[in-house]
UniProtKB/TrEMBL annotation:
InterPro entries: SET_dom, SET_dom_sf. It comes from the Eukaryota. This is SET domain-containing protein. Residues 51-140 form the SET domain. It comes from Skeletonema marinoi.
Length: 152
């Protein structure tokens, strides 16, 4: 799944902070940070205490692909156990939770992207997710499975 600009822009894309829980640490050497530099973005605190945001360091042309939303691919059953609490955790879920906590990565479920067919991209772990998790986005995808971001 890709993010594409729908107008020329030099933009800042802030992700809202939906909970009062402490936000995960985003290490400088994480994949999230490294992929942001490659794509012309920086991850920084967003104004107004809204959490972290992705801020463009280059002018973005209309129609440009900004980046790819990546992360761990989870099944609905894994999401139900790990985030929604509608299924009992198994030993793999407990191991996953322990790993996230030890690495100071979040377990809020704020960065789940429903791909359909009971598959989700979990963009919360900065070690395996791209910077795109920090972008605000449209509620619906276009015909190519892309999120369109308005120019600012």
């Amino acid at each position: 799944m890709h993010l594409r600009a729908i107008g020329a822009a030099f933009c800042s894309l802030g992700a809202p902070d939906a909970s009062d829980a402490p936000r995960p640490i985003i290490p400088f050497n994480s994949f999230a940070h490294q992929s942001s530099f490659r794509d012309g973005f920086e991850i920084q605190p967003a104004p107004g205490g809204k959490g972290m945001g992705a801020f463009s360091t280059v002018i973005i042309a209309k129609g440009a692909t900004l980046g790819e939303y990546t992360g761990e691919v989870l099944t609905r059953k894994e999401v139900e156990a790990r985030y929604w609490g509608t299924r009992k955790e198994n030993k793999h879920d407990r191991k996953w939770r322990k790993s996230r906590c030890q690495r100071k990565q979040g377990i809020s479920g704020d960065y789940l992207f429903d791909m359909g067919n009971d598959l989700f991209i979990d963009g919360e772990d900065a070690d395996v997710s791209s910077w795109c998790r920090f972008a605000n986005h449209a509620d619906e995808l276009n015909d190519e499975g892309e999120m369109m971001l308005p120019a600012m």
